[in-house]
């Protein structure tokens, strides 16, 4: 949420020579249709394979095992945190890992540009937050109903209070709505759309299903060092979250994924020779996330706790200590103090129990729900889900009449 553009959880933070992918770290491609899309992205230069040294840190003794990514693929993971025996988000399945260039989010920006080109006169708006909806008759040649959306075109400042209903702007009227996220249906979430679940019994049922998908939070640590960390034996390492509860060392349990973001293709080169700082990203394990949330809550008195600078600083200090404890035994020399250190909370990072459908469509409401809440936590699943929902809604509108051209997602 907030004032960023297209991208959602495929998010990056980039300024000057620092570059961090703070959400999705990479993606894999299994299905023929997504592989075809991947080839197009590669041809246009917005995606490259990340040929890094990928492996696993043993949570018992802190040693690292290098695992090739060039062997044949496995089954991967689709829900419940980002981890599993196949590594974080399937990083150790043997499938090639792909990243957007120069950042993961650049891929989403490119998709938004292409969509705008395809739509021509119609407007692609990003950075808006929808906060309330009403329905009126009309649309689709006058025979149907329309969704009227209200909210903010400037998004929601990360640390700010949501605007009061009277301050919300009119965002337009639309023949259909595609929810790309469960948040609009979930009271107290950053993207809750007030009243949507009270519009019909089928929407109330959809809201209950979305809440049952059991989202899991996660914190991301971003740290940059003037010199490359000495002797690190990997570019990315995963730890199985199911075995990270009570290790004697304790430190490895803090994270489920640690990666040198600078090792990804297209990022500023960090060779210690006056180039860019070396950038690292670490993502907390479910257990560590839970501990942190007890001290730095997500919700207080039914309201979302904003990620103020103070909130992020406090979390970053704790995570840096975890990072130091994890990395120090693997380094040939002391871990220097970072030149930059920051933290980000993902309140709804992964979906533990996706609804198990590619997408859901309520034709009578002219509303679809897609994304990982339906299809499971991965970039590929979210892409396929969004595309299928878009095609279904377009077909539904085409069948309703020629006037149905505007849809909001
Ligand atoms: C830290 C982290 C690491 C991950 N690592 C990987 C990985 O390495 N590989 C992998 O395949 N997957 C990874 N994932 C999972 C992957 O990122 C997600 O499964 C996928 O991006 C979900 O896409 P989506 O389209 O369903 O949702 P999103 O990308 O979250 O998109 C939903 C959008 O809806 C917007 N929205 C919600 N409510 C409103 C509203 N009221 N008004 C306006 N907009 C609204 C949100 O702001 C967001 O932009 C990771 C996720 C996280 C959080």
TrEMBL record:
Question: Which SUPFAM superfamilies would you find in this protein's record?
Answer: FAD/NAD(P)-binding domain
Among InterPro entries, the record links this protein to:
FAD/NAD-bd_sf (IPR036188)
Which residue windows are transmembrane per the record?
Answer: none
Q: Which domain of life is it from?
A: Eukaryota
Output this protein's name. Amine oxidase domain-containing protein
Q: Which organism is it from?
A: Chlorella variabilis (Green alga)
């Amino acid at each position: 949420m907030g004032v960023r553009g297209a991208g959602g959880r495929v998010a990056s933070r980039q300024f000057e020579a620092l570059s961090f992918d703070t959400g999705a770290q990479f993606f894999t491609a299994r299905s023929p249709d997504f592989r075809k899309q991947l080839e197009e992205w590669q041809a246009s230069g917005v995606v490259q394979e990340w040929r890094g040294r990928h492996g696993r840190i043993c949570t018992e003794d802190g040693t690292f095992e290098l695992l090739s990514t060039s062997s044949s693929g496995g089954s991967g993971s689709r829900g419940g945190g980002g981890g599993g025996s196949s590594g974080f988000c399937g990083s150790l399945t043997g499938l090639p890992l792909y990243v957007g260039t120069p950042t993961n989010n650049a891929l989403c920006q490119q998709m938004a540009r292409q969509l705008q080109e395809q739509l021509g006169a119609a407007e692609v708006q990003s950075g808006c937050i929808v906060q309330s909806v009403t329905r009126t008759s009309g649309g689709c040649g006058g025979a149907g109903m329309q969704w009227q959306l209200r909210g903010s075109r400037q998004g929601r400042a990360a640390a700010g209070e949501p605007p009061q209903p009277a301050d919300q702007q009119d965002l337009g009227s639309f023949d259909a709505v595609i929810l790309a996220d469960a948040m609009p249906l979930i009271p107290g979430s950053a993207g809750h759309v007030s009243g949507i679940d009270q519009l019909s019994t089928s929407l109330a049922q959809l809201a209950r299903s979305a809440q049952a998908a059991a989202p899991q939070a996660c914190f991301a640590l971003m740290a940059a060092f003037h010199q490359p960390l000495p002797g690190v034996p990997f570019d990315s390492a995963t730890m199985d979250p199911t075995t990270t509860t009570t290790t004697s060392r304790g430190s490895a349990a803090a994270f489920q994924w640690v990666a040198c973001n600078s090792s990804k293709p297209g990022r500023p080169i960090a060779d210690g020779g006056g180039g860019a700082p070396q950038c690292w990203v670490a993502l907390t394990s479910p257990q560590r996330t839970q501990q942190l949330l007890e001290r730095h809550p997500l919700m207080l008195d039914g309201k979302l706790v904003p990620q103020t600078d103070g909130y992020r600083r406090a979390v970053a200090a704790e995570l840096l200590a975890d990072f130091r404890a994890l990395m120090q035994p693997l380094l040939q020399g002391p871990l220097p103090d970072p030149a930059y250190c920051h933290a980000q909370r993902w309140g709804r990072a992964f979906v533990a129990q996706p609804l198990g459908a590619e997408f859901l469509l309520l034709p009578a409401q002219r509303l679809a729900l897609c994304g990982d809440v339906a299809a499971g936590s991965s970039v590929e699943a979210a892409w396929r889900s969004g595309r299928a929902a878009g095609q279904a809604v377009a077909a539904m509108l085409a069948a309703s009449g020629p006037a149905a051209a505007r849809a909001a997602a």
